Amino acid sequence: MGTVKHQFLGDSASGEQAIARMERRYADLENRIAQVSRRSRRSQQSFTGQAGQWVGGLGRIAAGYVGVNTAIQTVMESNRQYFAEVEAAAAKVFDVFQQFRTQSGLQGLEAEEAQGRIGRIAFTRAVPLDQTGAAATQLVSSGFSAEDASGEALDKVLQVLQASNLSRPDVNPADTIRAVSAYLEAQGLEKNAANLEQVGVRFQRLFKSTDVQLGDLQKFAKESVGLRGLVSSEEQFAAFDIARGVAGNPESAAVFLRNFAATLGGSSESASTKDALAKLGLQSQDVDFVGEDLGNVLDRLAGGVEKLPERRRLGVLTQLFERRNAPLATALIRERGKIDDLVAIQRDVAGFADDVRQASSGRNSVLVRQQIRKELQLGSEDQQVKALFDEADQILKDQGRSVINRYVSRAGANLRLAFSSGDDDAVDAALRFGFDKDYFDNSSVADVARARVGRLNTAEGAEQALLLREIRDDNRRGKLNPRGNSE
Question: Of 399, 407, 486, 405, which is closest to residue 449 (Cα–Cα)?
Fold first, then answer.
């Protein structure tokens, strides 16, 4: 737990004893003054003055340990600032994991285990927690299993983003995940970590070596359904790289490849297509991708084109692929030798691993990991302490304790926590400042506060807590006895 600590001169045991004595003396004072405070305004003024002296006395006790008369205010302000930071971190962590839990439907132990995996992956990859959580949530939304989305698939997609310079805070990982998911769906591939890695790594390697961008995958994915079962993913991406370079934009390149495959893949059996192939000395089955990969098809088309006189080549290709696609078809046939080179680039797994290592190393990665660790710690254990302190204060308020009494109690709790190492025993000690035996069956404020916080964790528990509050209110009005039964 990262609670704010202060270096006190003196031992903590003496400090706690002094605080306890001050609390007892204040309680005696309050009881005596309360008996006469109703009788005169002067008595009330006297009470206010003496109470102020006791608060000052508590401050002087603490000052004996730090050497300044503002010790208690310093502790309170430090803890106030610390708990404000705790609340901000807790809100962030809650939002990150709540979105994932809602999307995945995980509850209880399964949800806790998934949250642990997400936090560890964020820390390992040095990707901010909110980005990692957003990626996990989008993976589930895109059809990946909750286990994969909080585990291996999440790890793989973060590696792809890092290696592609897309793990910056201003980049939304959802776009890349939707693109990969759309491509897998278009190709009829299962949405799992292995397939995600293959697609991501292949596109990242092209990004590293050519003009292709990872964002281009989103444009290509929706058109790639036309190449399904005809052209391998590696050859699809290689052809897309070549066509993109000629077309100048990913949309035109993607549409061309869809039309190219449709023309040769058997979906077009028009007389014009058969006639154009015949002019190239080919038949439909020679280039229909049945038994031929993309390289074979392009080689056969090239052989047929080269047999034609130069002046007739463009006309035949225009007849075969239509005017809008003929220039790109010509370029793809001419540059077919690049297909094998681009496929080899996509298989450079070692190069991908090096890029990931570099992207997740260095000073910035250290800072990101430190921030993730801090958020996870503040958002869990330390937030629990803050919740317990707030609930304990509410208990004292319910019991009718004065603002000054509660202030002194909270100050004592903060001082004890500052003296402590932050373990559970110290938290209990910090919380044990007064309890109502009638309402709480001799339980300490700490025990009651823990029970209340536990109830407030769920909607059902919150409803129960509201009911208990109504019972206590009725009790104060004399409608119920201290055990909550109707009289």
Answer: 399
Rounded distance between C-alpha atoms, residue 314 and residue 320, angstroms: 10
Q: Is 167 left (phi over 0), alpha (psi -120 to 50) or beta?
A: alpha
Rg (CA), the chain: 35
CA distances, 447 to each of 2, 56, 330, 423, 443 (Å): 22, 30, 79, 16, 6
Write the pLDDT tens digit of every residue in 246-258: 888 999 999 999 9
Residue 65 in tokens: 């340990």
Global pTM? 0.66
Give strand pairing partners of 186: none
> What is the distance between the alpha carbons of residues 168 and 148, in angstroms, rounded to a whole number?
23
| Token reading at 87 | 């609340």
Per-residue pLDDT tens digits for 151-177: 999 999 999 999 998 877 778 899 999
3-state secondary structure of 378: helix
Count Cβ atoms within 10 A of the Cβ of residue 171 and give its class: 0-12 exposed, 13-18 middle, 19 or more buried. middle
| Total Cβ atoms within 10 A of residue 319 | 16
